Amino acid sequence: MLTEDQVKERVGYLGGSDIAAILGLSRFKTPLQVWGEKTGNLVPEDISHKLQVRLGNKLEATVCDLFTEETGKKVARVNETLTHPKHPFLRGNIDRRVVGEKSVLEAKTTSSWNAKQWEGEEIPQEYLLQTYFYMELGGFERGYVACLVGNQGFHIKTLERDEALQKQIIEKAVDFWTRYVVTGIMPTIVTSKDAGTLYDLFPMGDDGEAVPLDDKAAALIDAIQAMKEDGKALDKQTEKAENELRLMLGEHSAGVTDKYRVTWKNQTTNRVDLKALREKEPTLCAKYAEKSESRVLRINLIKPSK
Question: How large is the angle between the packed helices 163-176 and 31-38, nearest 10 degrees?
């Protein structure tokens, strides 16, 4: 668990939880988000109040105790931050070190919904990369990842030192830091999760003339339009299939197959008639109206001039 000061310091270096993100392999954060936070263009989200984070912090000691009970290996806290000997902007705060071994322990918790992610030899790639990163920083020969999965199980995964992979991780991290963070140059790698990040980085558009876009932009627009057309065709196919199901159900509100249960039930929804409210109570409507700012991306075909 990081202290308040350690959380503030994290903007000045890449930590273990950043590694999968800068490689584009994280479910929780994107390369663009990491860049924005490290360069000061984005304020890191405070997630300390979230229930899953608070539970994870409280259960960390429990997971470590379970690890000791299962393996007989004692563990100890490490209060100092590990720092790469050649690259001081690469740092890490490990959960525990294993006494009597050159090993690190990472303690994790997750809900029962994620049980499959820990079956057999499986381990989420965010934690795998994080642990290998720590092994390189601390010179550890082995890494253990222990995870309490809801009330369904307790898993311990063992990672042996992998020189080639660890070297590659460090090289990628150094490249990201020196190429993007130090220079302030925004990475061009964007993902489907970056819409909110892009709005935070560019919240207001100017009122100037349209800027000329290059061939890459034209190709992107062609691809977007094609995907939208494909999506419309797929939507129509979906609607047709759903209507066929409705016909099969007829007056029945539910049906079952070997694999599925399908329902077609009546539902009553109460909605505010905004048009009537504006006409009959314009003052009240204006009083409770909220103004929100957003940037909407629209693509329109330019008609050729005659």
Answer: 60
Strands 96-98 and 91-92: unpaired
- Per residue in 68-112, pLDDT (tens digit) is 999 999 999 998 899 999 999 999 999 999 999 999 999 999 999
Q: How far apart are CA 4 and CA 6, in angstroms?
A: 5
Q: Within a 13 Å sphere around the CA of 29, how many CA atoms are in the beta-carbon half? A: 22
Residues 33, 45, 50, CA angle at the centre, nearest 5°? Answer: 130
Asked if residue 200 lies in contact with residue 44, where contact means CB atoms within 8 angstroms, the answer is no
Is-contact 147 187, C-beta < 8 A?
no
Strands 142-149 and 103-110: parallel
In words, the CATH class of domain 4-200 is: alpha beta
Amino acid at 71: T
